[in-house]
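Module 6 notes. Inverse folding takes a fixed backbone as the condition and produces residue identities as the prediction. Think of it as a translation problem where the source language is geometry and the target language is the twenty amino acids. Below is one complete input and output pair. Work through it position by position during the lab.
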């Protein structure tokens, strides 16, 4: 049995794998990886107690990476992932409700290596019902 956080992870893994031809990683890959690619950032689960049990909110950040000349591709992929994630209503038996006003995209240039890379961070928030 999956936790709500693991269910969201697995749904997002499937979504990203379909978009990026299996170039999805748990963390930033070693050098030599083919671009574009995605990796997972942080997951956070918050719980709210109710009379009927617990409700939870799962937040996740995903990173989309590509080469210096492909900024538009990073932006496009981030937008597509955000839009598709906002359509998730069931995740491995968990009813989920995406929270669009807490989700978003940030595009930055990573200049820690040569050549620089574009990084899109997609923040997604889901209420688990």
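Target side of the pair, the amino acids:
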């Amino acid at each position: 049995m999956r936790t709500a956080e693991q269910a969201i992870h697995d749904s997002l893994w499937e979504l990203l794998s379909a978009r990026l031809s299996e170039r999805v990683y748990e963390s930033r890959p070693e050098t030599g990886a083919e671009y574009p690619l995605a990796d997972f950032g942080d997951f956070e689960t918050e719980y709210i107690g109710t009379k009927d049990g617990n409700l939870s909110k799962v937040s996740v950040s995903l990173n989309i990476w590509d080469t210096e000349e492909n900024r538009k591709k990073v932006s496009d992929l981030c937008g597509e992932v955000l839009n598709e994630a906002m359509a998730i209503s069931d995740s491995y038996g968990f009813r989920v409700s995406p929270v669009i006003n807490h989700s978003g995209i940030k595009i930055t240039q990573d200049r820690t290596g040569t050549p620089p890379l574009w990084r899109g961070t997609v923040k997604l928030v889901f209420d688990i019902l």
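Reference fact for the lab report: The domain at 4-27+36-128 is CATH 3.30.2000.30 (STM4215-like).
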